[in-house]
Amino acid sequence: MYRIIVLSLLVVALLAACQSSRDASALQAAAASRAATAPQEAAAPEAERKSELIASPKDGAAVCYIQPTEELRKKLSPEQYAVLVQAATEPPFQNAFWNNHAEGVYVDAIDGTPLFLSTAKFDSGTGWPSFWTPIDPAALLLVEDRSLGMVRIEVRSKKSGGHLGHLFDDGPAPTGKRYCINSASLDFIPKAELAARGLGGLASRF
Questions:
Q1: What whole-number distance in Å separates Cα of residue 33 and Cα of residue 45?
Q2: Which of 84, 120, 180, 189 is labelled catalytic?
Q3: If you placed Cys at 130, which of 72, 124, 163, 194 could pair as Cys (CB 3.0 to 4.6 Å)?
Q4: Is 64 a catalytic residue?
């Protein structure tokens, strides 16, 4: 009888140990599952923030929006200030460069950063200067724009932060892109003046 009681107690102890082991394994598995999904859940907001920025740079926090300072207000014309600082759009066919066919470089009206070559300009029929490629894509920021009840891609100058225009997918080959840019956001430097303006290195692009 004594042996039977001892054996019974041993069996009960073994069963309890096995159950504890199974419970521990289940807890570990659940913890591992939570650990595996946690990074994805944490990464989701970051991915959403990045998706707001359509193109380079990859970090959405790097988007530069120009500050409306009095210095800029004095430097720019009222129309330039409205476009570059307040993201306004100038009238089509009533702006400085929509029909300009001279050779030269279009630069940021704020800081003189070279943005577009005349060789990349084409007649889009829209009444605004249109280009199929920039000089250096890294000089531009492309940002999702949901204003006016539509989804567009806004083009900003990376260095100054000024609003330039918008980018569309209806341009000519080889890129199929149309950078629709406000004349008020640009200055034009004729080819003959590039060297004097410190842009002589771009003369070979014509």
A1: 20
A2: 180
A3: 124
A4: no
**Residue that the structure tokens 């260095």 belong to:** 159
**Domain boundaries along the sequence of the chain:** 1-51, 62-205
From the list 152, 169, 178, 135, the residue with the least C-alpha distance to 87 is 152
Cβ–Cβ < 8 Å for 85, 65: no
- HEC letters along 129-197: CEECCCCCHHHEEEEEECHHHCCEEEEEECCCCCEEEEEECCCCCCCCCEEEECHHHEEEEEHHHCCCC
Q: What is the pTM of this model?
A: 0.70
pLDDT category of residue 66 using cuts at 50, 70 and 90: confident
Looking up tokens 């009095």 gives 70
Query: CA 177, 100, 157 angle in degrees (round to 5)?
Result: 50
Q: How many residues does the chain have?
A: 206
Closest CA to 97 of 186, 205, 195, 201: 186
